[in-house]
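U., I forgot to send this yesterday:
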Amino acid sequence: MDSSMDRVVPLDELDDFEIAEGDPDVRGWEVQASDGSKIGEVDNLLVDTGAMKVRYLDVDIDSSLLTDSNDDRHVLVPIGYARLDEGNDQVRVDNLASSDIMGLPVYTHAPITREFETEVRQSYDNKFNAEKTDSDYYAHEHFDDKKFYGAGRDEKDARVTLSEEELAIGRRQRAAGEVEIDKDVETRHVKERVPRRHEEVTIDRHPAPAGMSANPKIEEDEVHIPVTEEELVVEKRAVPKEELVVKKRSVTDEETVEADLRRERADVRREGDVNLRDERNR
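Result:
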């Protein structure tokens, strides 16, 4: 069985573990992303019972980021990946935008396995390779609780983190309109001249030929000669005349996005006879 099974457990399940004196209990604190927006609240702390250290924050995702407002979604944030803002009772995750939240593995409150921890680590660091990890799985800055709790964990160094906002551009599909094609029936009156044949009767009169009886019988008589003509029969039939082929294609254009971004700056003041050297590491 994986030795990591049941090693990392929620603080609520530990009767013999308390928050260190001087460290705030951040459960219930708001969690802010790098863009300054709220992504949720700290629901619990996950503790490594072997080292008696907090390894993860259990963050309950804010409903405004969920498709279904009734959904209950939790994610894990490594303790060193976040920092405290005690003045505002907030936890800040400076390297995580609110648009990245839905890409993190879902924490279902099932027992923590090494496989799930690896999936979580890879979501924060896509270069992480579990097979090349040192023997101490937590020997990484993501699990450095000093980065989270700040100066109180290191008496030699006092640290002030300066943050600034960056644009996080997301995309979503929305209806821009539609094209409708309606077929209407219109009536037009046509008039055409069409050839039509008919028979005509012509009577030619000429002298009786020789040899006919000299004493013809004189009497009344009738001769019937049928005369025919063509009658036009008009019918209507539907004939395909044109075909419309409707196609859609994707076109990419550019749109300018503007926003006012905030940035924290440090104002360093010297009081008294203090040697001060301000170095910037690039």
